[in-house]
Amino acid sequence: MEIRNKRLSEEEFFQQREEVLTMWPTGKEVDLDEAVEYHKSIPVGKNGALKTMEAKKRRVTELFCSSGTDTIAAHTELLRYCREVGRIDYASSYIDSFTRTGRFDMAEKGLKEAQKSGKKVLNGFPFVCHGVRGTRAVIEAVDMPVFVWGPAVDLRLVMEIGLAGGHTGYSGGPLISFWNYAKNVPLDKVIGFYQYVNRLMGYYEEKGVPILYGVSGAMPTITPPSLMTAAKIIETLIAAEQGCKHILLNNWAQGNMAQDIGSILTHSKLAREYLHKFGYDDVETVTFSVDPTGRYPADEQKVYSLIFYFAMIGVLAGVQMIGVRTVDEAKHVPTKESISASHQCARMMINMLQDQQNEVVNSDAVKAEARMEEVETKAILDKVLEMGDGDVIVGAVRAVETGVLDQSYATSQFVKGAVMGVKDAHGAARYMDHGNLPFSQEIVEFHQEKIAEREEKIGRKVDYEVLVGDITAIGDGSLLPERWGG
Predict the structure, then answer these.
(1) Is residue 3 part of a domain?
(2) Does the residue 4 lie in any domain?
(3) pLDDT value for 486
(4) Three-class SS of residue 250?
(5) Three-state DSSP class for 95?
(6) What would the pLDDT profile of 35-50 be if each residue is shown by its tens digit?
(7) Which of 335, 361, 387 is a domain's end point?
(8) Closest C-alpha to 88, from 414, 289, 347
């Protein structure tokens, strides 16, 4: 039967829960009614949904830290250190790789080794191994909201334990998990798992516990932002149908100021527009900006400039939350000291700009980027909805099969992978090849003209070799490879 964007009935949800909670012994610790009451006993200031909505009301930008480690003691120490020294406002329990891929036995083996040796073994927090009681021990030891963090194909049991354990949000989603964290799992199956996750969040909402859901869409690799924004809005509509009421619109910055700011503004505008189109007018949205993926410079001095820049983008765009990467990102798993130093750098930028008059968002360059992204995103989304006869999930599945929804460098074997991005003369991401995206000739010519401007500037054809240089440019010290050493 073809999966559709329809809310799981109570019978469907609870029937599936019986299976989910038997995936690992700690599942039996989850009692939804007790978990709801536990959340209601948590101070309001530790609820991430409420805190971000307050930040939006006050028009302030706050600081988020994505991190996680294996043992309860080490993870607690990490979060408390980053709170006290790094001055963060929100934290995460980043899920370890074994747990994200459902290898709970391997996660438990790694956890036991970490507990025995006192050394870090896992690259995140193994929720399923710690269970509800262990997870609550972390939440009760810190005085800020903490979220479950990390995309994966099937996080149903992780989210049962994470939310029952006191976390008040999650960032990930079906499309980013399909594009970037799956190999041979079809999109409809991934979406099905996330319908359960979103329905679980919706259940908490219905019981009076706000939960923040961060939609991520796709990871960028010189990706024109319309391709990511379309995916994020699809994730938003899927979540809203299952009862999610507080949605964090994640935005990946890539380095061109006008495009980065324009994309944040466009994403927020279109999210509201499409939520209204389908009648989800009671859904609240807030915005989040984070550094790009990919290789960072090994020289920490250079990374501080990147942290500074990407924090600035978030403040200028008026986001409620900023996430930053760390100065030692390229060398090893970040330490609590480097994480805190990186966030202190971002905090300084927030403090410098927060109270200043900001006219950047009204610049012609930002407006032009926002306008083009809106046209492109609507072209993709409206075609997806047309292909699904108004159902965004049916349309998304069919669109992926035909390349109307596509991504470069996806890990999934079910993706066409026909689209290709490259930078223009100013470092903005453009479509070098738009594949089967449903674009008008006007859109195609716009990108061709932007790429031609760069070709004229560098005196050569923009080809695969140039694209490779674009991908590694930031890691080598500049936005564009032709600026190396300049």
Answers:
(1) no
(2) no
(3) 43
(4) strand
(5) strand
(6) 999 999 999 999 999 9
(7) 361
(8) 347
Q: What is the per-residue pLDDT across 419-429, written as a single tens digit (0 to 9) for each?
A: 999 999 999 99
Q: Give the total number of structural domains in the chain.
A: 2
Residue 219 in tokens: 């990871």
* DSSP codes, 342-368: HHHHHHHHHHHHTTS---GGGSHHHHH
Evaluate whether residue 2 is within a structural domain.
no
Does 387 lie in the same domain as 289?
no
Q: How far apart are CA 249 and CA 271, in angstroms?
A: 8
Residue ranges of the chain whose pLDDT lies below 70: 1, 330, 484-486
- Residue 290 belongs to what H/E stretch? strand 284-290
Residue 189's domain spans which residues?
Answer: 10-361
CA dihedral 384, 386, 391, 392 (to 10 degrees): 10
Cα separation values, 146 from 141, 171, 228, 268, Å: 11, 11, 25, 23
Q: 456 and 422 in one domain?
A: yes
Q: Which residue has the tokens 């041979």?
A: 184
Are 3 and 196 within 8 A, CB to CB? no
pLDDT 10s digits, 74-88? 999 999 999 999 999
- Cα–Cα distance measured from residue 426 to residue 364, given in angstroms and rounded to the nearest whole number: 15
Give the tokens for residue 383: 């075609």
With residue 208 as reference, give the H or E element that holds it: none
Please identify, among 308, 339, 361, the residue that sits at the C-terminal boundary of a domain: 361
14/10 Cα distance (integer angstroms): 6
Residues 196 and 67 reside in one and the same domain: yes
- Report in angstroms the alpha-carbon separations of 23 from 17, 102, 133, 296: 10, 9, 17, 37
DSSP symbol at 102: T
CATH number at residue 458: 3.90.970.10
* Residues sharing a CB contact under 8 Å with residue 335, sequence separation 6 or more, in sequence order: 328
Q: Does residue 85 sit in the same domain as residue 135? A: yes
Show Cβ contacts of residue 33 under 8 Å, excluding neighbours closer than 6 positions.
none
